[in-house]
Structure formats: C-alpha cells, structure tokens
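Illustration 12: PHR domain-containing protein.
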Amino acid sequence: MALKSEGFTEIDRATLESVLARETLNCKEMNLLEAALNWAAAECARQDIAPTPQNKREVMGNALYLIRIPTMTLEEFANGAAQKEILTQQETINIFFHFTANHKPSLQFPIKPRAGLKSQVCHRFQSCAYRSNQWRYRGRCDSIQFSVDRRIFVVGFGLYGSSNGAADYMVKIELKRLGRVLAENNTTFFSDGSSNTFHVYFDNPIQIEPESFYTASAILDGSELSYFGQEGMSEVTVGQVTFQFQCSSESTNGTGVQGGQIPELIFYGPTHDEL
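Figure caption equivalent — predicted structure in token form:
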C-alpha cells in the first residue's frame, strides 16, 4: 500500500534508496520496480524533463541497482521488468543468461533474495492430546479472544489436525474486533496425522492495536477426530509482545483458554533483537 501510494512518489532519492535497500521488505521485486518507476516519472516532472525510459533511469541513478531483479521468476522478468525499457539491452541479455545459462555473467544487481520479515508464533498451550471420543469437528466454530500490549500484525493461525491418520481439511479462518470482520479466508490444509500444528494464512497481514480484544475463529470441516490443546495459558509473552487470552462467546465447539483449537497465532511484531 505504501509503495503504491501517491506519497511514495514525493520522497527524495536518499529515502527511495533506503527503502529499496531494506532487507526486511516483504513484497515482490516487480512491485518495487514499478514503485521506483512511478517515483522516477514524478521526479522527471519535478525536473521538468520528459519521462522517457532514459530520463527515468537517469534520475533513479544507483537506486535502480538496489532492486533485486535477478530474484524475480523468469516469467516475471520476461513479461515485466524486461518490457519496461529501463534496462540496457546488455543488462537484459545478461539477466536472461543468469536465469538460464550454466555459466552466469556477473551482474550489478543483487542476486540474493531479501530475508523479508520473520514471522513469530504465540503458542498458547503447553501440551496437546487426543482421545477418540473427546474432540470432533462438526462444522462448529472454535474461537478465542486475545489482546496484546504492542501493535502487531497477525498473518495466520496454527491449527491442530487429524488424530486418526492423514486427512484433508477445509477451514474458514476469521479475525474480528467488536463484532466486525477484519479478515477472513476460506482455505484447505493437509494434516499428516501427527500432533504438529498446520499453518493457515490470511491474504494480507492484519494490524492489531494494543489494549483491545480481538476474536480469532476457525471452522473446520474434515476428519472429525482431532488433536486438541490443553494446559492453556491466559498470558503468553513472545519477544517483546505479551498476549492475554480469554474465552469467546462465539466458540461453539469447546475451545477456550484452557484447551481446544487455535493453538497458535502467527504474527509480525517487535523481537528481542530490536532492543
């Protein structure tokens, strides 16, 4: 959203370079290239010159070489970056050789993908179990309320799967605040029959503000017999973030603070490394 905003085209070149150099960016390089080209077009207008590919390249300077074009897929490069007329013919040929040849030419562009943001996981149970007659999925809602003491971004949930051999599940995950749906996703996951959790994600991270309760919900449809969490904790600290959990009135399948489903919240947030 920031890259596509009008405000992005108004930053100075030093800021553009600091953004493009970031190791933690979590977006496609093609999006970065398009944002940089939008910035370059605006910079051409500020300098009162025509926004030709040559002039855009001129105003970008070395910022162009901070975009990790060789980490795109071959298809993204061929149908996107190579068509933008921003690269020289030799650069385009060299990058194609980088994708396809055994002997790769040296490039001015970084060839190592960005590390991106590292997600963290809040585990709210100390153990899990299964009993043949105790935990079933019948299309009912498993739900838990939580709050945090710092702003985070929730990206998905860890869920328990089948305790009766491998199985496929359909699941609807949902995140609400004050009854309003902030995000939902209908997806599937494969459970290998182990007590591992299986991660399911929203399409985009959801910003969670401190000191307000949110409701995490999951409705599973699939093999009924399942693992479930027990020895649940009402307070869990991960990195610099403390989670508080409480029962949700929307939970109709038995999930609560002490036990049940939704054992993990997957999120981006501050870590000890940032202290």
